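A student in our group prepared the protein record below, which I am reviewing. Here is the record exactly as it was handed to me.
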Amino acid sequence: MNDHERHEAGMAVRRQVLGDAHVDRAIAGTDEFTADFQDFITRYAWGEIWTRPGLDRRTRSCVTLAVLATLHHDEELAMHVRAALRNGLTPEEVGEVLLQVGVYAGVPAANRAFKVARETLREAG
């Protein structure tokens, strides 16, 4: 797959997982300074990793939630809680992932992640 094809595939998956509104806001906010970064994450995060056949999107969402919670990346965590719902996870399954975080990454990380997830799930309705 060439860079253009990778970017196109990544954009399709990015839109399916995050939703058109989110992606449209990210693209609208792109400027000369951030353009290379937007291209990078579209081609590599979405076009290389999220398109791989080895894990389904539900599983990728679980892994992503756990990593983001562990690293305290709250804005990205909230975004991926919404994405996890789009990928078919239930709020209860999101909670199960965060319980795993509590055991393996520490209670403070899980406590913070539960707060972010709860607020995000309330907003998602």
User: Anything to note?
Assistant: The mean pLDDT is 96. The radius of gyration is 15 Å. Helices lie at 3-18, 20-28, 35-49, 57-70, 74-86, 91-105, 107-124. Residues 90 and 119 are 15 Å apart (CA to CA).
